[in-house]
Every structure is written in structure tokens, then in C-alpha cells.
Specification:
Elements (H helix, E strand, L loop, with lengths): L2 E12 L5 E12 L3 E5 L6 H8 L7 E9 L2 E2 L5 H7 L4 E4 L3 H4 L6 H11 L6 H14 L5 H6 L7 H13 L5 E5 L7 H18 L3 E5 L2 H7 L2 E6 L2 E7 H6 L4 H17 L6
Parallel strand pairs: 3-8, 3-9, 6-7, 7-8
Antiparallel strand pairs: 1-2, 1-4, 4-5, 9-10
Helix pairs in contact: 5-7
Length: 270
């Protein structure tokens, strides 16, 4: 498969009272049409990596290396090129959809404004039909009610689905999902996993899926990047990484996940 995204020797530092190296010599690639999982513990650099890919980091950040999308280095883009890239070429689904939506406007209004900002102009009837169809794709089956709702009127799962619908509206080349199920219960989490697989099949999406949950990697991903303290510890297909890990940190992740599974299934005596 053709390589869509290539990250090479990426280094990110946060400056201030002290320098914190968030990413160190990170290298991996993402092929067209696949789902690549980024896994690691909290504070390991996963979210920094996500926002590095769209070149949207705080002002106190030093970044160097190469991040190439379709052969073009994103880190060399000017502001106009970056505005075109974000949302249009690369869409990102944040951890907390409630924080991503503006609480004082309806979901429908925010959909419309996003589409206009990306150059999508429809007649009113066509626009509404388009938005409703998007919501149905993410299994929100009462789209008219969703579009008229304010963010606080929807559940966490509904908000996350609405955010996914908005993100895929402009058919980005790459979708980055930054722990999109972290605040959801296991039933909704499972539904979202199957929805991502269906969207990949239906729309040909290429996805980077960021998580700390090895079980989600096993269900969803084709390949895995293991990140620990800002460094890549292992890269490979999910079967090899999960069942035959080569790095000690990956082995500890696997063993921890197995232990949690055993407790949840009642195999460990109290």
C-alpha cells in the first residue's frame, strides 16, 4: 500500500522554567487505507504526537524532524497552507467532544459554519440533507433532533458521534482519533469501534487511533506503534506486537492488560 503519512526523527520540546522533551526521534509511517494504533500510558507523548501531525502545538514548543503527508513536509507549511490542511486534509477527533463544541450554538449551526470554513456551500435544503446523512453514517438516527440540539442536551456518546460526523464531512485524507472513547462506557465504546471499521470500509478512511487500551488496538488496528516516554519502543502488525512483543515495555503492557481481563472475568481469587 502507498505511504500516506511519514514521520521521521520527530523531536518535540516544551520550553519554560525547564525544558521537557515530549518526543524523541519518533519515526513511523501510515499507509493508505489502514488503521494504525498509537498506544502508551498517559503522559507518554501520544497527544503531543497527534497535534504535531497537524502542526498545532503551543507557542513554547520547539519541533524538528519531518512529517510528510503525500510527500509534502507539514512542518514547512505557512499559515495559509496549515489552515487548508487542518480539517480538510487531516481531521482530528479530540478526547473531549464537549470541550470541542461551542456550548452556546446548536450542533447544526456549528456544522454549517465548519462546512463554510472549508469551502462547502450548499442551498439550505441540500445542506440539511447532507448533514442528516452524515449523522446517520455515525448511527445517530434522529438527525433533525441532533442538529437542533445544544451540546449540553446530548450524551457523551452522541457528542462524540456528532464530532466524528463533522470530521468526516469533508472527506479528509487522514483521520486522527485521540482517545475518542476515554470518557465513554464500554457498551458505547464497542459501538464506536465497529463504527470506525464500517467507516473505513465505506469511505476508505485512513486512521491513526490513539489509546492506552490494548484491547481496542486488537479489535480495530492493522499495525501498532508503541510509545513510551516520548520514544517509539516497537512498531509492527498488531498480531506480532500483541502476542510476540520484542520490547520489555510492550510485554509489560500486554501482561497488565491480561491481568485486568482476568480480574474482570472473575478468574483471580480475592
Amino acid at each position: 500500500m502507498e505511504i500516506l503519512l511519514k514521520v521521521n526523527n520527530l523531536n518535540v520540546e516544551y520550553t519554560g522554567k525547564r525544558i521537557v522533551q515530549a518526543l524523541r526521534d519518533v519515526s513511523f509511517d501510515v499507509r493508505q487505507g489502514e488503521i494504525v494504533g498509537i498506544i502508551g500510558e498517559s503522559g507518554g507523548g501520544k497527544t503531543t504526537l497527534a497535534y504535531s501531525i497537524i502542526n498545532l502545538l503551543p507557542g513554547n514548543t520547539r519541533i524538528n524532524g519531518d512529517i510528510e503527508l503525500k510527500g509534502k513536509n507539514i512542518l514547512s507549511f505557512n499559515e495559509k497552507e496549515l489552515r487548508s490542511l487542518r480539517g480538510r486534509e487531516i481531521g482530528i477527533i479530540p478526547q473531549d467532544p464537549a470541550a470541542a463544541f461551542n456550548p452556546v450554538f446548536t450542533i447544526g449551526y456549528q456544522f454549517e459554519e465548519f462546512l463554510k470554513s472549508k469551502g462547502f456551500f450548499f442551498g439550505k435544503e441540500e445542506r440539511v440533507l447532507f448533514m442528516e446523512e452524515l449523522l446517520r453514517k455515525v448511527h445517530l438516527f434522529y438527525p433533525q433532533r441532533i442538529l437542533k440540539s445544544y451540546p449540553h442536551q446530548l450524551s457523551g456518546g452522541q457528542l462524540q458521534r456528532a464530532m466524528i460526523a463533522l470530521t468526516i464531512a469533508v472527506k479528509p485524507s487522514l483521520l486522527i482519533a485521540d482517545e475518542p472513547t476515554s470518557s465513554l462506557d464500554v457498551t458505547v465504546e464497542s459501538q464506536l469501534m465497529h463504527m470506525f471499521l464500517n467507516l473505513r470500509k465505506e469511505l476508505g478512511l485512513t486512521i491513526i487511533f490513539i489509546t492506552h487500551n490494548l484491547g481496542l488496538i486488537e479489535v480495530l488496528c492493522d499495525r501498532v506503534v508503541v510509545l513510551y516516554r516520548g520514544q517509539v519502543k516497537e512498531v509492527g502488525d498488531k498480531t506480532s506486537v500483541i502476542f510476540s512483543p520484542q520490547d520489555g515495555y510492550t510485554k509489560s503492557l500486554r501482561d497488565s492488560f491480561k491481568a485486568i481481563e482476568e480480574v474482570e472475568n472473575g478468574f483471580v481469587e480475592s
